[in-house]
Design goal:
Layout (H helix, E strand, L loop, with lengths): L7 H6 L4 H7 L1 H11 L8 H10 L3 H23 L26 E4 L2 E4 L2
Antiparallel strand pairs: 1-2
Length: 118
């Protein structure tokens, strides 16, 4: 949970007032994206403007709000409470993460063992 604050925008976007707030200004969306970014240089100003502009449409803003709300309530909270802690994958799986990826740890579980990622 060290980097959990980076996902805090999801809580904000799931609230009833979020759809209206998203339509106020695309700059709000642009600022939120940059706030949670680990590499701000990954986004060009044009990318940010485009993403913010899309959410100016009422139907898209509402859909985004409903998507985040559904995810948090039906998936996010149960996952944080350990819904899958005792579960293990039953198919061959490879986890690939970048060395600078804040969402991955330096280790992954493989067949019950902890294996360093290289």
């Amino acid at each position: 949970m060290f980097q959990a604050w980076r996902a805090s925008y999801q809580v904000a976007l799931s609230t009833p007032v979020a759809a209206a707030a998203l339509r106020v200004s695309p700059r709000l969306v642009e600022s939120s994206v940059l706030l949670g970014a680990t590499r701000r240089s990954a986004f060009t100003p044009a990318d940010l403007r485009l993403y913010g502009a899309v959410l100016q449409e009422p139907a898209r803003a509402r859909a985004s709000t409903l998507l985040y709300r559904t995810f948090l309530l039906r998936e996010g909270i149960p996952v944080m409470r350990g819904r899958y802690d005792a579960s293990r994958l039953t198919v061959a799986t490879r986890l690939v993460g970048g060395s600078g990826d804040p969402g991955s740890s330096r280790h992954c579980s493989t067949a019950g063992r902890t294996t360093p990622m290289t």
